[in-house]
Amino acid sequence: MKTLSDFNFNGKKALIRVDFNVPLNESFEVTDASRIEAAKPTIIKILEDGGSCVLMSHLGRPKNREERFSLKHIVKKTSDVLGVNVRLVEDCVGQIAEDTVSSCGSGEILLLENLRYYEEETKGDRDFAEQLSKLGDIYVNDAFGTAHRVHASTAIIADFFPENKCFGLLLASEIENINKVLNNSVKPVAAIIGGAKVSSKITIIENILDKIDHLIIGGGMAFTFVKAQGGKIGSSLVEEDKQELALEILKQAKEKGVSVHLPTDAIVADAFSEEANTKIEEINAISDGWMGLDVGPRTNEEFSNVVLNSKTILWNGPVGVFELSKFAEGTIALGNAIAEATEAGTFSLVGGGDSVAAVKQFNFTDKVSYVSTGGGAMLEMLEGKTLPGIQAILD
Ligand code: AMP
């Protein structure tokens, strides 16, 4: 696996695929620069070697050259975060881009205009990838968030750098940390899978069953399991057509010696709202017309016990509707238990969309071992897929 340290960038131009698809407010200001900060170590290391950086990214999903998706909006923030003046190149391919890149010297950073101004990018067009490839001596992929896409700048372009291609520091550490759970884990290993739907997590569960000792199931998806086992779930979220599948997972887990932990009690509500009336009920005896929106206090204790006795933890998906403070307690209790386990030496990885949002909202980011930056990419890795953006560097 080639990384930055396999190259000396002195006098070289690094063409770096970053994921600067950052959120902007109505005045086009960057509201969360985490993705820019995440790429900083790679960029700084290349500059310190004496190289220059040509950054390429997409922003949003523009149709044609819509100005609101121009990377000009992020130039200032990028310069501030990196501590170096960043120059925008008004196009990402063609004469302007090639001329600007050839005039760029050591220590300089260029930011190419939105890759998705060209539909060839998402189509994985070879000619477009070849044009991009003219803009650097060494190709560096540091965009984990798009590593699951077969786009021109994430996968196809690597063919034009048969020797001179490598992972950036961010992408390398994503791979390393996910491998700590999937391939080199210290036992016992617990996976906490929550969120709304069984259907979106099924492939992950099937892939990890061989690698874990405990499977904690929380969130809306737990009710499909509870109902499938004959429980009364009131009007809680359920996927009727996934009940067979839920029973099949429980059977597979048993055969593989994995202990499955489902909630035993729930905070139930008479409406999906912050003003709802609530009470605690047994998970399999929920009153008609009431829905489970969080795990109950007994479940919190049971889940925490499993977490505190594990040496490796994977957390994907909240165990309740954490966006409403009334139903956030289970997710916070779980976060606290994971933080305590981490402090005692357990490796904890959090990833995939909403659990990352929960971790940020409740300030657990620094209390877990690693928070993955790639939502869809992380989920696909957990599903056992080889990501095209990673494979292209390995080939
Ligand atoms: P996912 O994107 O599949 O990880 O699902 C995350 C979403 O699941 C969050 O928006 C939560 O509000 C939601 N969720 C968690 N628990 C429940 C529940 N008991 N009922 C309905 N939605 C839930």
Describe this protein's structure.
With 395 residues, the chain is an alpha/beta fold. It has 2 domains: 166 residues, Phosphoglycerate kinase, N-terminal domain (Rossmann fold); 207 residues, Phosphoglycerate kinase, N-terminal domain (Rossmann fold, 3-Layer(aba) Sandwich). Helix content is 34%, strand content 17%. The protein has a 6-stranded parallel beta sheet, sandwiched between helices. A 6-stranded parallel beta sheet has the order 10-8-7-15-16-17, sandwiched between helices. Helix 10 runs parallel beside helix 11. The mean pLDDT is 96.
State the main characteristics.
395 residues, alpha/beta, Rossmann fold, 2 domains, six-stranded parallel β-sheet, 17 strands, 34% helix, elongated, binds adenosine monophosphate
What is the fourth-level CATH superfamily of the largest domain?
Answer: Phosphoglycerate kinase, N-terminal domain
What is the overall pLDDT average? 96
Structural class: alpha/beta
Strand order in the sheet with the most strands: 3-4-2-1-5-6
CATH topology assignment of the largest domain: Rossmann fold
Note poorly predicted spans: none
Q: What's the total number of strands? A: 17
Q: Strand-residue fraction?
A: 15-25%
Bound molecules: adenosine monophosphate
How many helices does DSSP assign?
14
Count of individual domains: 2
Overall geometry comes to elongated
